[in-house]
Amino acid sequence: MKYIQISVIVTREGEYYLSKCPELGTASLGATEQEAIDNALDAALVYLNTLEDLGECDRALREKGIIVREGPSIGQAMRCPPSGQVRTAVVPLPVNA
Question: Could you give the CA distance from residue 24 to residue 4 in angstroms, rounded to a whole number?
Answer without folding.
Answer: 11
